[in-house]
Amino acid sequence: MEENMTIEFVKEWIDKHNLTKGSFDRIMNDLIYNSGHNYIDNPYLRYWLIDNTYKFRDMLPVELNDNQQIVLEWLKEAYKRTKWSSPFGTVYSTINIHELFVRTRLTKAQQFQVLAAFAEWGCKSNE
User: What mean pLDDT do residues 11-16 have?
Assistant: First the structure.
């Protein structure tokens, strides 16, 4: 396998094609049936995806619904607003303000997905 096939390359490819966890089955189906050449045009990437299926699935971001996206934007804005913000402080203060919205419009699983997306955004923005 080509040595240039890095995690960063795969992450960039995921971003380029706007892939999410919802894309996983389609991608795997394309790999199995040798289709999908319009976006899996690199043979080394194809081999990497086959050999690292679970790692690839874990790299895919969750696709958020509209209500989840609203809460994520609140979290991002609150975090950026204060230079001394901490992630936990941001979650605590934002949810205190918008608790009714969060409790009535998001399931617990959806709340965890928002937290995961906020964590992923925070890690990327603090690199």
Answer: 89
In whole angstroms, give the CA distance from residue 126 to residue 121: 9
CB-based burial label for 35 (10 Å; 0-12, 13-18, 19+): exposed
* Structural tokens at position 84: 């001394």
Smallest CA-to-CA distance from 52 within 85, 98, 13, 107 is with 13
The predicted-structure confidence for 79-102, as pLDDT tens digits, reads as follows: 999 878 899 999 999 999 999 999
Q: Among candidates 5, 19, 4, 21, which has minimal Cα distance to 109?
A: 21
What's the chain's Rg over C-alpha atoms?
A: 18
Q: Two tokens at 112?
A: 């965890």
> Could you tell me if 72 and 117 are in contact, meaning their C-beta atoms sit under 8 angstroms apart?
yes
